[in-house]
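Consider the tokenized backbone below.
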């Protein structure tokens, strides 16, 4: 849920433009020519990191004798482990950007209302506003909603995109945990800039020193969030 530059994921660094404000506009200009100004646009850098799994051995007799495809199972596990590590890295970056705790006596509904107002005050577009709740915060939210609110909330769910509901114009998502002392994070799609490369699988067949095939994987990922 961000602006992606994945086409450039093979680079060590990706330079992206940073919004620095609007250009002056005059109504019914009476003086010509207009004053020439210099654009002070700046750029930010997405630093790409290389994530690599530990190699895993498929012992040759196991590869032949087992009643299931152990090589396929291991390859899927390697890819899943890599994706999970990158997902944790991504969510941690956003949590440090605009994440927060929820006090025991606070209502999740009130916090979401405040987040929606903050987006409005910062003139964010009405679309592509996201909030991720921890599982505990989500359960608390459901208890706070009336039956009518719950029905309206769930009617906006889109399982394919990971959105489980919408309230106050916020697309709500859920994760078992987010980060230490963080129960929710909120951001707009335009805030989060990232690049994600393809998962590459490496295989060394019949490695003599390991008496089997060795499999590993890697992927490149980097992200940039503007200063808070």
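A designed sequence for it:
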């Amino acid at each position: 849920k961000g602006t992606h530059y994945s086409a450039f994921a093979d680079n060590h660094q990706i330079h992206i433009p940073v919004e620095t404000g609007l250009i002056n506009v005059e109504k019914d200009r009476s003086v010509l020519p207009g004053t020439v100004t210099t654009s002070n646009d700046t750029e930010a850098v997405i630093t790409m990191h290389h994530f690599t799994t530990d190699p895993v051995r498929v012992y040759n007799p196991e590869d032949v004798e087992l009643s299931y495809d152990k090589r396929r199972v291991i390859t899927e596990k390697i890819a899943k482990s890599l994706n999970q590590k990158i997902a944790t890295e991504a969510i941690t970056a956003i949590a440090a950007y605009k994440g927060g705790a929820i006090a025991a006596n606070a209502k999740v509904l009130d916090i979401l209302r405040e987040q929606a107002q903050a987006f409005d005050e910062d003139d964010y577009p009405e679309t592509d506003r996201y909030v991720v709740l921890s599982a505990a915060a989500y359960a608390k939210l459901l208890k706070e909603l009336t039956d009518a609110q719950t029905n309206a909330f769930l009617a906006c769910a889109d399982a394919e995109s990971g959105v489980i509901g919408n309230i106050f114009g916020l697309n709500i998502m859920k994760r078992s945990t987010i980060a230490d002392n963080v129960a929710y994070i909120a951001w707009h799609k335009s805030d989060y800039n990232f690049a994600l490369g393809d998962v590459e699988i490496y295989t060394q067949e019949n490695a003599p020193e390991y008496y089997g095939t060795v499999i590993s994987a890697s992927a490149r990922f980097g992200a940039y969030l503007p200063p808070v």
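The longest strand covers residues 212-224.
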